[in-house]
Amino acid sequence: MKHSRRYLVGISALLVLVVGGGVALGRALNKDDELAEDRTPKSMDVILAEIRSLMQDYSIEAYIVPSVDAHNSEYISQHDRRLQYVTNFTGSAGTAIIMLGKAALWTDSRYHLQADGELDAAHWTLMREGLPGVPTRDEWLLANLSPGALVGTDPFLIASTEYGRLGAVLAERGYRLIALERNLVDIVWNNRPPQTADELLPLPLAYSGRRAADKVQAVRVTLQEHGANAIIVSALDEIAWLLNLRGSDILYNPVFFAYLIVSHTHLHLYTNADRINATVRAHLASEGVGELEVRDYRDILPGIDEYVRGGNRLMVSTACSQALYAAIPADQRLQQYSPVAKLKAVKNAVEAAGMRRAHVRDGAAVVRYLHWLEQSVDGGNVTELSGAAQLHDFRRQQDLFVDLSFAAISAFGPNGAIVHYSPSEDTDRPITRDGIYLIDSGGQYLDGTTDVTRSVHLGEPTAFQRECFTRVLKGFLSVAAAVFPVRASGTTFDVLARKALWDVGLDYGHGTGHGIGAFLGVHEYPPSFVSNSASPSNQGLVENMFSSNEPGYYEPGQFGVRIEDIVQVVNATAATVPYDFNGRGALTFHTNTLVPIQQRLIERALLSPAELAQLNAYHRRVLEEVGPLLLQQNDPGAHQWLTEATKEMVAAS
């Protein structure tokens, strides 16, 4: 039969569809109900065939499937793992484009090896972003679309800035990017997990450090400064931070599904109303925001329309979805980098102190694990999975522990070269003394979030392994010791971290640093230490921002090394920086993470006297701050191990 055209030409409170020559409201296709009746898992053949059939119904030649959810989250719930469903790729960043006769997945260098192992080459072409000769998504579309073709996407799953950019690129060549009323993956996903809506956890002032009312007032000041009447907050971590509430809707991320509209006089929270119980209501009242009105999560577009019809000027983030952006007429819309993200990135005194305390306890957990690993490895029973489980257990024993902050990257030997490797039953390797073991892990505590990576060799490393590790260490130490002016760009630190590797023609394919939340997301922006100075999250550093410091090196098929600490931006003393950048202000880093760096992997001849002194001073701190806690936890063996691991290093003779 002839396929009728069904696609969105705009987003407003009502979803409007063009069907042939007329207009209809409602759902895109009736067949999605039929497809949802049978919950038997489908093969890749069937999934792609059904999506392509729907594409013909919509008269589109290409359909874009991103990795994010409606809130542009990096880490997503099982309910939102559309990219994984259609590709089998489990990484946290990627974009698939399905055409009627071919399909491709783009992902960055962190996931090249992982995606290569997860994609079915019979159905998918892997596009390794950043490598020479690999076409960008734009280039691939322009090379494969027929004249006048339509490209479809879900407007809730694409940032408005990207929608506008890609739309303009396509329009220049006579193509059109259109927003579909229904997500095609959702239509065919017959056994899709339900969206989570778990209970909320009020975060006491002892951990948040600032009442919700004060945070909301700071947002309202921003609205006043920009002549806006209200702001639509769609990022989940920003909502959790503003209201001093935490959730568990996304694994390892203490957030909950919601939208929040803040006006000068009202707060409208769009979420599952059942979980706003008496305890949460009492919390909101004590936080000074008891006037908050709760509406159903699915009513966000009608809610925006109320503000629009009231003649209000609405502020949205540059990261907001096209669906929210298009719901606001251009003359009533103001878009800029999220002011809430900027506020959240600068920790208050209570949050900063909590982060430091959390890292002492977390350091004790990791030290106990590394000691246990050294004692247990010869038994032959330690694997990547069992090691990660043991580390989880040591963290669970720490005060104020809530959960992990992400699934541990427990990677031995060649698996360590997969930057964001996650062990599974199929890939689980024994940990032995014959290679490098990389463990990247973290915890969620009521008073802070941690993220730490250490690379260790339990046997005798090769000269090349020692050189790679030491060059990574030199970059790591250079960042940790940096002195810089207020608002320094993150690109500065990215270069510092890479120089020792670049000196011999080595490099790594990921950023050097990401922000981190206070009992929130393990990845938070701003700040970011990346090579791209135009990155929106490169907002410049100010006091009490927190970032990771994590250079690395990865030899495919052999090993990976990474060293990662969480650092806090602090004021530099006048004694060390007498000229204070002509009054601009001088900053430096305080390292929060307290875990020794393995000396066995260090080629001492490559370290300068200053670098050796810096490393020794750090190790003294680790022993002084973590050592007493190990004794309190009745683990003298771990204390003795730490004493040995932090012994002073002397220059090579």
Automatic annotation (TrEMBL):
Residues 354-569 form the Peptidase M24 domain. Residues 49-170 form the Creatinase N-terminal domain. The keyword Metal-binding applies. Residues 586-648 form the Peptidase M24 C-terminal domain. Keywords: Hydrolase, Metal-binding. One of its GO terms (molecular function) is metalloaminopeptidase activity. CDD domains: APP. InterPro entries: Creatin/AminoP/Spt16_N, Creatinase/aminopeptidase-like, Creatinase_N, Pept_M24, Pept_M24B, Peptidase_M24_C, X-Pro_aminopeptidase_P. SUPFAM superfamilies: Creatinase/aminopeptidase, Creatinase/prolidase N-terminal domain. Belongs to the peptidase M24B family. This is Xaa-Pro aminopeptidase. It comes from Anopheles arabiensis (Mosquito).
